[in-house]
Fold this protein.
Amino acid sequence: MVAIASLPFLAGSLIAMLFQSARRRAVVGAYLFSTILLVSLTILLCLLYSASRESSVDVRPSSAASASVALQPEMGGEGPASPTFTGKPGRVRVCLTEKSMLSRKVREVVLPASTVFEDGGALVGDPADYRTWRFGLDGGRANRSVVLVDAVKLGAASQCAEAGARVLTASTAGPNIATATERRLYAINDVLYYPVPPTRPTIEIAKLIDDSSVKAAVIEDIEGTQRRPSSTESKPQLLAKCRAEAQLLSLYMKARLGRQTDDVVFIEKFAPEEVTYNCRRNPTVGPHVYVSWRDKARPSREILDLIAVAGEHLLGVPRDEMLREVEACVATSIKSRFELADRDFRGAKISCQARPPEGVWGSVDLYRRFGRAGSLEN
């Protein structure tokens, strides 16, 4: 670059020599022409030099940028996913075996698609007559369940209905079929997808499950499977996810986070009480909030409000309804000789414990019993 930049000065020296051997006007014209020409050449050479430098720069992305690009999912925002469904669904006969569940107020029972029935044992009785159904003594098959493909309605006029079904599995690998010739009897056990209903149902699915009031039998071989939702996240990822969820809850409660263990994150609000967000996930109990208090069996108004706010966030149930349910649950536990009580509503559950007459402490557990399709398996 230094040599190129000195060309105008060399040209000036050359032109000065011309002044001595030619007339003034001709020399000036030659000087101007030579200067313009050499300056143009200088600019052109500078541009060519700069272009050659840029072409030699390593334009490969850094390792961090490469990693970021490699982690981007395919078009549409989702990465490749393994299949959830395989094979052809079969058919089951679903029956309300306890007619006592129906009344003047409860004329019909509606089971949503994704209702799960667990193998309870050999079917004793006539498969075509639900009134003869009962479980054999062999016991149920572990981890053997079927899930409805269709919603069904059961009522006084027709206590049975047919629906499509798949075998619910933890993995789609291996033979997973359920045949009519096996003569197995299934009992209602769970609901995978259960959005919070806008109004309270006339009968809670939890009651149907707890009383084993609805059963099913295979009438057409089921070769299709549905993989039970699960996760492959590592323990550090699960702990980080748990803390993030607890952070959202604490913001909603206007509280602050405390220490974290493998199972829970502590939420600090009132000094003598304990509030935790439980991160353990399994098909029976989803993430839940535990609140305890001391020195009396009934919680203070502040604690009641705190529980209602936590329940509103976690369960999607209106705050005033949460208050009524918590107060009723605590009152029942105080009266119970076992000091325990439960309340099921809209797919949510409250478990209460109190210690009368001493009144030394009490506690409430809140969690969503159904609809935890993304829950982790133990």
Q: What stands out?
A: The first helix runs from residue 2 to 5. Residues 134 and 366 are 34 Å apart (CA to CA). The first strand starts at residue 85 and ends at 86.
